[in-house]
Write a structure and sequence with these properties.
Strand content: 25-35%
Number of domains: 2
Oligomer: single chain
Distance between the termini: 19 Å
Bound molecules: flavin-adenine dinucleotide
Strand order of the largest sheet: 13-18-17-14-15-16
Shape: elongated
Helix content: 25-40%
CATH class of the largest domain: Alpha Beta
Structural class: alpha+beta
Length: 418
């Protein structure tokens, strides 16, 4: 029995940051992790390189957060992207800033991030238990009073739930935190996989491996355009991915779950005006030695795209009789700028980068990450109904909310003891 301890469930990005922040404030901290080692998910972030944060100032940073940018503001100011970089440099992880203001460890390895966090926890005396799934959390009189594992029941002075979401369950995030929070009276905003691949109708394997750079991508739900983005997409064995594909997936997946139709429109030549594109098409047709539409399209896109592009846009296979046709030039210009791709499904949690939805933000104080319902409960990281785009935003959410929760849990305990 030790009700003067901060107990943390989950040794992911957020839980480890909470543990460090609480221990730095003098609290006695126990961290309980179901997997055999900490930070399983961190190890696979940024394709194994770990995009720690993003250096954009809050005004821009916040535009990459969903669904409630304002919620993160106090935590971000308390532990910002600059704090994150300084923190990691101080614990021995040199950082570099890359394209898109994304920050990575100079080592190029996510493992250095996990090792440094774990070493820092150890140096602060955090009690770390691995292979220790929490099975149940109990409460009475609006206070958490028990945290049950297979071999032990903790009576925490304060509890931080930092169990992550539902995505990549092999890393340990299997939605337990929602179950615990719900049992304590919290509402869970329905979850769905986000930052995930979108599968086009009649997807051709020929497209796999193609990357389109600097395109414009619009997302339509039913008939309304709901999002417009510029950047890159990748065609993979799972469908459309890459930074733009991921960015539109949040709304697209939600639409599909709600039973709405959804399609993407790709503008392959967003930087070229309509008239310049028409002139270019006319010139290429004139110089073409055959009547093959495929040969013409080779001038405008990677060859793997061509047969799908012809099919989706109902273009003729041969230019015979239409070489001189202005109508065809217009048709091709339209197709290059408005290639419509219907989306029929998506990759679920097993390979989604993030879980959208989660513990309702209405029930958490944004300045402290404390529950509005349970006095000694704090919540941090992806388990909350808060997520970001790709680019380092999600780990920063985990670090900012984790830091806040850790400091506030320690402060709560010292107030109780005073
Ligand atoms: C492939 C991939 C790449 C990504 N790349 C990036 C990136 O480069 N940059 C970025 O910002 N974000 C990235 N993300 C997102 C980011 O990793 C997550 O948002 C972040 O790790 C969430 O941290 P968390 O601590 O809240 O949750 P998690 O990292 O999921 O940690 C939760 C921990 O809780 C443990 N746990 C769960 N239930 C229990 C229980 N009952 N008992 C004990 N322990 C439990 C889990 O085992 C886990 O270790 C990526 C995600 C994926 C899947």
């Amino acid at each position: 029995m030790n009700n003067s301890q901060v107990v943390i469930i989950g040794a992911g990005a957020s839980g480890m940051m909470s543990a460090i922040a609480a221990a730095q404030k003098g609290a006695s901290v126990v961290i309980l992790e179901k997997k055999e080692r900490p930070g399983r998910k961190i190890r696979i972030t940024g394709k194994g390189r770990c995009n720690i944060t993003n250096t954009k100032p809050w005004a821009h940073f916040s535009t990459h957060l969903h669904p409630n940018q304002k919620f993160l503001r106090p935590a971000f100011y308390s532990f910002s992207n600059d704090h994150t970089i300084n923190f990691f440099e101080e614990i021995g992880v040199k950082c570099v800033v890359e394209r898109g203001d994304r920050v990575f460890p100079q080592s190029g390895s996510a493992t250095t991030v996990v090792d440094a966090l774990q070493a820092k926890m150890a140096s602060l005396g955090v009690e770390q238990h691995y292979n220790t799934p929490v099975l149940k959390v109990g409460s009475s009189n609006n206070r958490v009073d028990s945290v049950v594992t297979r071999s032990h029941t903790y009576n925490p002075g304060a509890l931080i739930i930092a169990t992550g979401g539902l995505s990549y369950p092999l890393t340990g995030s299997t939605g337990d935190g929602y179950k615990f929070a719900k049992s304590l009276g919290h509402s869970i905003v329905e979850c769905w996989p986000s930052l995930t691949a979108l599968m086009p109708k009649n997807y051709s394997t020929e497209l796999e491996g193609v990357t389109l750079k600097n395109i414009e991508l619009s997302l339509f739900i039913v008939k309304d355009m709901v999002q417009l983005e510029r950047g890159d997409i990748d065609f993979t064995n799972n469908g459309i991915e890459g930074s733009l594909g991921f960015r539109v997936s949040r709304k697209a997946v939600k639409a599909l779950i709600n039973g709405n139709s959804c399609y993407l429109v790709i503008n392959l030549k967003p930087a070229v005006s309509d008239s310049n594109l028409e002139s270019r098409i006319t010139k290429e047709i004139k110089e073409l030695s055959s009547n093959s539409t495929t040969a013409l399209l080779r001038k405008f896109m990677p060859k793997q795209l061509i047969s799908t592009f012809i099919r989706d846009n109902n273009l003729p296979e041969s230019l015979l009789n239409i070489r001189e046709s202005y109508k065809f030039v217009i048709e091709l210009r339209e197709s290059l700028k408005h290639w419509k791709i219907e989306i029929v499904s998506y990759t679920s949690y097993e390979r989604a980068v993030i879980t959208a939805g989660g513990i309702s933000l209405n029930e958490v104080y944004p300045k402290t990450m404390r529950s509005r319902l349970i006095e000694n409960l704090f919540l941090s990281g992806e388990v909350l109904d808060l997520d970001g785009d790709t680019g380092g935003y999600n780990l920063q959410i985990a670090f900012s909310t984790g830091f806040r929760a850790g400091e506030e849990a320690a402060a709560y305990l010292s107030l109780k003891e005073a």
